[in-house]
Design goal:
It contains ten helices and no strands. The protein is mainly alpha-helical and 209 residues long. The longest helix has 23 residues.
């Protein structure tokens, strides 16, 4: 994670305080000992995916800020991690950034729950970036799944497989996994192949060691 990039974003948005302490607090969250997938590497990956897609979809500071904060709070198994990330972002940014901007970023962070189809172009952009990893080559996709498994150490293999299948089935059951034509063109086919291949691994009792 690049402090200069974050600082440029913060000051471009007229952040009133120095960004250094804020960045340090943010990176401290992503370096937590329970993080194996939702870590610094995930944010760097998301920002890189954003940069590539922004050539086509356009740069958007709201989208970028949401990506920095969307997994800031992580309690394995909790269903309100995104809401807690929103609360922390708002706590840090109120009085620092324009309130309409804070509201828009908060809404985008909540979109990464992946429970409801994102309606705005910005929400679609954020959601597609967050799901970018599904369209990687199989080896990288499966490595990410192993990392997710390590984050859920409290679950049995059976329970993890059930949870992972439930989430991924909710994605493949909709008309498209991705919402922007850009991501659909590049990643839709590979993402579906990866997910169905993973279902076969889960059915066969894959070892996560």
């Amino acid at each position: 994670m690049d402090p200069h990039r974050f600082g440029s974003l913060w000051h471009r948005l007229s952040g009133r305080s120095d960004s250094t302490e804020l960045f340090d607090a943010l990176i401290c969250h992503y370096r937590g000992p329970d993080r194996h997938y939702h870590d610094v590497g995930h944010i760097v990956t998301c920002l890189n995916a954003y940069d590539r897609a922004a050539i086509v979809l356009g740069t958007d500071d709201t989208v970028e800020m949401a990506l920095w904060f969307h997994d800031a709070i992580l309690i394995p198994g909790a269903r309100d991690n995104e809401a807690c990330s929103v609360a922390w972002f708002e706590e840090l940014s109120l009085g620092q950034l324009p309130e309409p901007f804070i509201t828009r970023v908060s809404n985008l962070i909540m979109a990464t729950r992946h429970r409801d189809p994102p309606e705005s172009p910005q929400a679609q952009f954020v959601v597609d970036v967050d799901l970018w990893g599904l369209g990687q080559p199989w080896e990288e996709f499966f490595a990410d799944t192993r990392a997710l498994r390590r984050e859920r150490a409290e679950l049995t293999d059976t329970d993890f497989a059930r949870d992972q299948r439930g989430f991924l089935e909710s994605l493949v059951d909709r008309p498209n996994i991705y919402f922007t034509s850009h991501f659909q063109h590049l990643f839709e086919h590979v993402a579906r192949d990866n997910i169905h291949r993973l279902f076969g691994c889960l059915d066969s009792g894959v070892s996560w060691q």
